[in-house]
Amino acid sequence: MASSTPVARVWLAEGHPSDTDNLYHAAELQNAEGVRNITASRALSGWFDTYRTLPPCPHHDLGKFLKVTDALHRPLINPSPPKNVNVISSRSPAGAPLQLVAISAPQLQLQLTKPHLQVPSSSPKFLEKSRSLKVDTACYDLEDSVTPAQKPSARQSIVSFLSQPRPPHISELSVRINAVSSGLALQDLTSVLEAPNLDALVIPKVNRASDLHFVTDVLRHKLPQRHPSSPDASSKPLKILALIESAEAITNLNEICKASPYLSGLIFAAEDFALDLSLTRTPSLTEFLYARSAIATSARAHDLPSTIDLVCTSFRGAEGVKTLEEECLQGKGLGFNGKQCIHPSQVEVAQRAFAPGEKEAEWAMRVVIGDEKADSSGRGAWTLDGKMIDVPVVGKAKAIVKKAEACGIDVEALREKWKHQEPE
Fold this sequence. Notes:
Mean pLDDT: 75
Shape: globular
Helix content: 25-40%
CATH superfamily of the largest domain: Phosphoenolpyruvate-binding domains
Radius of gyration: 23 Å
CATH topology of the largest domain: TIM Barrel
Order of helices and strands: EHEHEEEHEHEHEHEHHEHHEHEHHEEHH
Number of helices: 15
Low-confidence stretches: 1-113
């Protein structure tokens, strides 16, 4: 049954107008955080309070889907929806005039390969050296690579580093704090949240939703202006990445993925997971297959943009490069879109492995061109090289072409090369 107390704010994901399943997902995510009695005019006058909803109901039936608080049974302050905002209803379920506006939430974004390079915060030498790196994400560590005696000075060092001009070739600057269960997380957060160039927090040993609730409460108190719902685009919402390291975490993935609006992705910590289950890591990595599949699948089910695969412990010599390439391709095949790196030499290999290959990009462009011609002739399914091409395959091909373009591949040249491709 529905509750009698408003418990959440709701939005509709961009690109899915009138999709109540997405609406329900957003409501549940916010409810898991414990949000209550939110002012309608807080963000673009477009957020609204909801009661806890019933399980998914028919599309386009918002009236049965949720109830709106009495305080909102009136026109919103801003009656015109802002740019990129979807109007999902013009009347409240009770019949009183009300324009419900749903601000766009991040749907599953196009994610390029994301090498996630770890840097110990206790080493001034490594901090300065990281300025010259060309990497998607640099993760400055306050946890395992920092001894207990060094943690206070490491906090000071990383805050100082992240208060200086940003390194020119690092897209995202993150800090891995100590686990909530360690008792050190609050000290870490109190320090690093002062750093103006902090983009993301990596939370280790996330075993249950409450671990993220703790961090979320601190963020809402310390940096309310960087909440994902902030109406100011320049505020740069802070992101959370959760490290999945135990059997308990695997069994709680659904709750973890809904635990915080800041959550942007999951990272698999294979060595800690092996310790928890008394596993021996083998070259095939089959002992991690279930956990890796569960992580990638859960992240996709909850539209989390980043899924970062395990560390490759081999990085020296030709054999190390070969092992890294194999692991990257295996992770990519399981649904991961990034790789943890422990040495700068691993970054380029990971970027190359996760980007679309030449043959993959050509196949995708052939499918896209062939489908355009098939569609113009009214054919819903056709074949290419003897294999059936239908809607899901075309969707995958289009995603590959888009990713290839973002990775710098000349897709227009590919289109010109295959412009005569015909559906078979």
